[in-house]
Amino acid sequence: MTTVPAIDVADPELFRSGDPLTLWAELRRTAPVSWNEHGPGTGFWSIVSYAPALRMYRDTASFTSEQGMRLDSDEAAVRAASRKMLIVTDPPRHSAMRQMMNSAFVPRVVTAMEETMRRVIEPLVEDALARDEVDFVSDIAAVLPAAIICEIMNVPQSDRDLMVKLTSAAFGASVGGAGGCPMDQMQRTEAHADIFLYYAELMASRRREPGSDVVTALIEARMDGRPLSDEEVLLNCDGLLTGANETTRHASAAGVLALMDNPEQWRLLQSGEADVSTAVEEVLRYTSPALHVTRVATRDVQVGEQPVRAGDRVVVWNASVNRDETVFRDPDRFDLRRTPNRHLTFGIGPHFCIGAPLARVELKVLLQVLAEKVATMELAGPVRRLRSNFMWGIESLPLRLRGR
User: Beta-carbon neighbour count of residue 190 at 10 Å?
Assistant: First the structure.
């Protein structure tokens, strides 16, 4: 059994102030699949290369999602959500649940929302240009996905400012360790509780007056010949909210930072020499917001050269897989014209992210508006990164923007 020496690749501090890129590159070269100790007497198989990642993503018979899809999850919460929430459900039940919600996320529907997205983002960017300094994360990146998920769930206009505020609080700065405090955790927990209460009221409203939104679709759906319980509806509403917020928010902020670090790429975007849809794919690959995905082996199976036993936890590090030198030429280079770009930011196979079309169009509109309206971007203070082994992101990005 190949064991990673010295360092726990799941240490959250590695992603806040360490250097995961160097570690991943070394592991891809020496141990693409290896056993990682993670706490006393516990550990997991760590996959950092593309080919074995594909093997795990596609083999739903050998790897289950129903015991959690991320490290360090609360086991009781996972048990409560298993087979009720889309992301912790296996096929064929997963496929039926996905079909219930899919109508809100098909590309045709999402593309039709581009003008709505532009109406959200243009005032945010114009306000940022009028100010001396903004925090790109809280003032722009966090607002767009919250506003759009409100659209998909048909939250009344009178409640949308409240929901954006609650969402920003619930998914705001990290807690604990450097840069965090217990009050942060309390505020996030309270905000999330308020969101659940709001969804309960929204669900009751849809039962009285059905609409054409995803909440109504969940209420009217049938699984095993019965309607979903209130708990199942609420869990999946929360899952959609979480997914919609985390990916776009962190990809947006990290993508803007990458543009500032690579001014020649920023010029290509501004001039139109870089196609914006192609640029979105590179932002998603390069930033890889969802660091990892977890599965549990249901039977003995070979992954790469390693014998994985039934019951072993297996972790794919998407952010490393997306820099695999055997798939991506010059993978550490931020290249908005990169093609092909077969990144696994949204996974692949049955669990391919249901919100991928939404995230892509949100990022497309954001990049278009920035390229149209912003001449220069510069840091106005220190960048503060998340202390997390699940989301590779930025919690504060102070900027000065100047108009074209």
Answer: 13
Pull the structure tokens for residue 45: 């198989």
Residue 151 resides in a domain: yes
Residue position matching structure tokens 């196979």: 349
Stretches in the chain below the pLDDT threshold 70: 1-6, 171-184
Answer whether residue 7 is part of any domain: no
Report how many domains make up the chain.
1
Residue numbers of the domain that contains 213: 12-403
Query: In this predicted structure, what is the pLDDT of residue 362?
Result: 95
State the DSSP H helix or E strand holding residue 360, giving kind and residue range, or none if neither: helix 356-373
pTM of the model: 0.92
- Asked whether residue 60 is assigned to any structural domain, the reply reads yes
Widest distance between CA atoms in the chain? 60
CA distances in angstroms from 49 to 108, 127, 254, 317, 382, listed in the order given: 33, 42, 22, 8, 32
Dist. CA 340–CA 361, nearest whole Å = 19
Q: For residue 173, what pLDDT is reported?
A: 47
Give a yes or no: residue 1 inside a domain: no
CATH number at residue 327: 1.10.630.10
